[in-house]
Amino acid sequence: LQFCGSTVEKVMFWVPQSGDIGMGVSILTYAGRVQFGLITDTGLCPDPEAIIANFAPEFEKLLMLSLMMPWEN
Prior knowledge:
Structural class: alpha+beta
Shape: flat
Distance between the termini: 31 Å
Helix content: 25-40%
Largest sheet: 2 strands, antiparallel
Number of strands: 4
Order of helices and strands: EEEEHH
Number of domains: 1
Radius of gyration: 16 Å
């Protein structure tokens, strides 16, 4: 995919924040990769890195479980 003459290598989007929404999570797949975005209200979640640190281990668990499921032809 090209945009304005340049190859798009990564894409990201952010969930709009408004009103009393304290946290937004975005998950997007493109070109065989998964991108995660996290935006938080610092008053409700002063350390969003603590949440982000758990993304990869939890998705590793999901991957392992999906590989254990029977595959259909």
